[in-house]
Amino acid sequence: MRLRDLAHARSGDKGGTSDITVVAFDAAAYDALCRELSPDRIRAHFADLPISAVDRYELPQLHALKFVLHGALGGGVTQTLNLDAHGKCLASCLLALSIQAEHESPHD
Prior knowledge:
Layout: E1 7-14, E2 17-24, H1 27-36, H2 39-45, E3 53-59, E4 64-70, H3 90-95
Antiparallel strand pairs: 1-2, 2-4, 3-4
């Protein structure tokens, strides 16, 4: 299944750093996200970006994971020629990730 079957996401930026928050639709989906979405997996998914490190923060009360992708935006809005200088499309790109989960989507 795809990550979008279990969660929604939002991305933001600060300088050359992008952050992506993934919010599970429910507690069972959050457990699957915690198992499946490691910093290494996120970095591998965005292998074409100049990411120097990925930090993961768990927000269990919100059923959310926040990922900070250091260096992902190539210097930030004023220093890059990237079409998506703010990294707004990164959340949508992450939702295409295939994951293993034994969870029924509320959107089926």
